[in-house]
Amino acid sequence: MEVWEIEMSTAHTSAQSAKLILDGQEYDLPMTVGSEGEVGIDIGKLRALTGAVTLDPGYGNTGSCRSTITFIDGEKGILRYRGYPIEEVAEKLQFLEVAYLLLYGKLPTKAEYETFVASVNQHTLVNEEMKNFYVGYPRRGHPMAILASLVASLATFHPSPNEEEVELNIIRLIAKLPTIAAFSYKMSVGQPFVYPRNDLAYCENFLHMTFALPVEPYIVSPTLRKALNLLLILHADHEQNCSTSTVRMVGSSQANVFASVAAGIAALWGPLHGGANQRVIEMLEMIRDDDMDFQKYVAKAKDKNDPFRLMGFGHRVYKNFDPRAKILKGAADEVLGELGVEDPLLEIAKNLEDVALNDSYFVEKKLYPNVDFYSGIIYRAMGIPTGMFTVMFALGRLPGWMAQWKEQRETPGGRIGRPRQIYDGETQRPVPGFDAR
Ligand code: SDX
């Protein structure tokens, strides 16, 4: 086996090139440094130069793109949308301001914001024919399946977009996703669909469509409105996570935004990703029903022979704390207090966090609560059923998905995503007849 080594110029800040020595031949690979000092080895010409490819299952060491949208420093627990710290964004902004910021790269002026909100309001209704889709689903069907299908189906109502249609379709999706989501909830509880109202702001409108009944007036509580605004903002973008990378990958084939986002919804559904918020509550309920024995479940999570994982714990990037989890932990106390909700699951979650953070297994593996650990407790207190939790995650992540899709689409020289592989299968062999099989 030839010895291969790679040397990088030590001064990262002025990194010029990395030297790769392969089979005794030296290759200089260009280096790149981002605005926050992140260093990348550009391997765009590696195969042409050396015949070799890199191998990185799960892409933990591979940058797929350059982006100006979201910055995460996993070691320091930093998350910024277009340079603004998540803590300030969560405290000071409305969700549609954050959507505008992620999509267009700047915070809107008051006039720009009013125009944006007005344009979203013009598209909150879905075509009446879309209601026919719902009757085909079993009432208890998972709403993520409905969301992915109906978002992809929006392309049948808005086919072959030209340039301005692309921008309009982004507005359409921001406007219609809450309606599609709320309708799926109403179908699951056997209640009539409640139409959106343009006199209500974005978060109020979703709560109205979800909880109002035609037989009595529904007043949105300021606590619920504030909690939903916070939850949507905290989920709005998270650089190249699994579902966003999926949206980019589908978008790289020049598929339309509805198809790309539908694929992102499907990826988000997985329990290792956005589906974790539902699994966290199911785990906490299991612990509650098992005499609150959270120590037993911490032991199971540490047992290599036990597939059980502490859902809502761990993160590919955050190796300290997830700043969103910190914010949500405080918000959980506040929201439940304001709503007068006593939920034993919150105490179990806090006990679980305390035990885990003082246990060498979790400390050594740098496993901390992530965004999914406390979010479900707030959704629950708001009256949102567990099955809808990942739908709520999708509602928040939508502007981030589309901002990333748009950024890729607008990047000159963009190519279709097509990773290589290392083949480990059979080498060439003749096809045998039946008698030789
Ligand atoms: C989200 O990428 C993003 O940004 C995602 C997200 C976003 O906003 O888009 O932040 C949202 O998806 C948050 C993550 C939600 N998922 C969960 O809470 C599910 C539980 N967590 C894990 O399955 C896991 O931590 C991941 C999926 C989050 C991260 O997986 P990695 O980076 O591939 O890490 P790994 O599975 O290789 O785990 C490293 C080690 C392993 O032990 P060893 O094999 O090294 O001995 O840590 C262990 C794992 O067994 N481990 C856990 C654990 N998570 C990891 N052990 C117990 N409980 C856990 N939760």
- Give me the CATH architecture of the largest domain, please: Orthogonal Bundle
Helical stretch tally: 18
| Percentage of residues in strands | 5-15%
Give me the secondary-structure category. Answer: alpha+beta
Radius of gyration: 24 Å
Order of helices and strands: EEEEHEEEHHHHHHHHHHHHHHHHH
Inertia-based shape: globular
Helix content: 40-55%
Low confidence ranges: 9-14
Question: How does this structure look, described?
Answer:
Helices cover 49% and strands 7% of the residues. The protein contains 18 helices and seven strands. The chain has helices spanning 46-50, 86-92, 95-104, 110-121, 131-135, 143-157, 163-188, 202-211, 222-234, 242-251, 257-268, 276-288, 294-302, 323-339, 344-357, 360-364, 371-381, 389-410; strands spanning 5-8, 17-22, 25-33, 39-41, 70-73, 78-81, 84-85. The radius of gyration is 24 Å and the shape is globular. The longest helix is centred in the middle third of the chain and has 26 residues, at 163-188. The two termini are 36 Å apart. The protein has two domains: 5-55, no CATH class; 66-411, Citrate Synthase, domain 1. It has a four-stranded antiparallel sheet. The chain has a three-stranded antiparallel sheet with strand order 5-6-7. By secondary structure, the chain is α+β, with helices and mostly antiparallel strands. Mean pLDDT is 94; it is low at 9-14. The site of s-citryldethia Coenzyme A has 22 residues, from α17.
